[in-house]
Structure formats: C-alpha cells, structure tokens
Amino acid sequence: MQTIDKEKAVSMIEQAEKITFLTGAGVSTASGVPDYRSLFGIYTGIERPEYLLSQTCLLEEPKKFYSFVQTMYHPNAKPNTIHKKMAELEKSKNIWVISQNVDGLHKAAGTQHLVDFHGDLYDCYCTRCGQKVSAKTYLFSDRHDQCGGQIRPNIVLYEEGLKEQAIATSIEAVSKAELIVIVGTSFQVHPFCYLIHYASDTSEILVINESAVQLNREAYFLKEDAVKVFENIV
Ligand SMILES: [Zn+2]
Fold first, then answer.
1. Can you give the residue range of the structural domain that contains 216?
2. Catalytic one among 113, 118, 190, 197?
3. Residue of 25, 180, 41, 46 whose CA lies nearest to 105
4. CATH code for the domain of 97
5. Would you say 126 is a known binding-site residue?
6. Is 118 labeled as catalytic in the residue annotation?
7. Domain count of the chain?
8. Where is Zn(2+) bound in this sequence (predicted)?
C-alpha cells in the first residue's frame, strides 16, 4: 500500500463522483460506541461471544442472549462527523455506504444508500408474530407484550446467513464505484472483506485506518483517525 497524507485523502474524496465507503467499528468509536473487541474483552473467560451472539444461544438460553445483547446498545450515541459527512456527500455525489456496524448511526445520520451488512440493532421484531417492535420496547423486555413471543434485533447472528439482498447490493455498489474508501476497519471479517474483489480494475482504493489492512491489490493508505479526515471535506 502506498502511504499518503491527509490532504491527498481529502482531495481524492472530494474529486470522485462515485464513491463506496466500506466502514467498520472505527467510524463509531468517536460516538462512544466501543468496538466488539473491547466489548468482548469484558466477557473473556466467562463465555465466548461467538456463542452469546449465536442462534443457539437465542433459542436455548434466551436470557443469556438478551443480557449480552443489551450491553451492545448505546441508545444515546449520536452520529459523528464521519457519519454526517458521508450522508452529506450523498446530496452531490453517487454514494453508497456498506457498513459492518450494527449501531444504526449511518441511518441516523441520514444516509439513504446504505447497506447494514450485519443488520441493525435498532430494527427489532417479534419472532412469533413478526411484528416490528421499537428498540426501546426491546430494551425494556425481550417478551412481546401482545403475544408473549421472543423479540430479537435484526442482526446477523453466528450460525445465520447474511441477507442475499445485502450481498447483492454491496457487490453492485463496490463494482460501480470509481473510489472505494475503507474506513475504520481492520478489514478481516469474512465475507465483508471479500467485497473488495468486486472492485473494478480502474477503481482506486483508499484505506483510512489506524493500522494497515491486507489487500491483494494496489491501495492508498492513510494512517489517521478518520474524524480528522472527514472534518476537512468540504
Ligand atoms: Zn409478537
């Protein structure tokens, strides 16, 4: 990867017309949402997160599932400069945001062309009657008061498959972009990181992250806190 400075990264984003952002936990830490690794750190030695966030745990030990998932909610978190600038760019450019985050902050910022690749914690429904339920209701109780069914967030659990529509839309957004910006992610989660294989040969790839990521093609790399980049985009 070719290391570049902040000014070059800002101008690449300002000049491109078709941009697809691939985002991860790093875009939400400035909003006070901890990344999974630090969240899981609390639970190390108690139970594996892969189990606590699995379909098996949801079905067989719903209380355990519920108490873990509750710790992932930060209902007072607000979109930060990164979320807001991405939403704002959509007004003048062809933008797509594909996010691994389940915190709903890109949506809260107003991004319309959005794929929540792993779902959205704030999109909850009753698994018995299918009715949509607010996250506030879910955080009060995981039992649906109308039918007694179990409420769950619409996030992709371990043992569950990704939504086909999310994959198809993401592939199209990546393949049509002239600039792909990977922001705030170590880009190691499969199959999210496979999306880059769909980039066209003529597209440019820019990585803005605290550490370098492994890619099998040419990319520009800026080692920086993404907030400092996005606050400079006009
Ligand atoms: Zn119900």
1. 1-33+78-118+161-234
2. 118
3. 25
4. 3.40.50.1220
5. yes
6. yes
7. 1
8. 126, 129, 144, 147
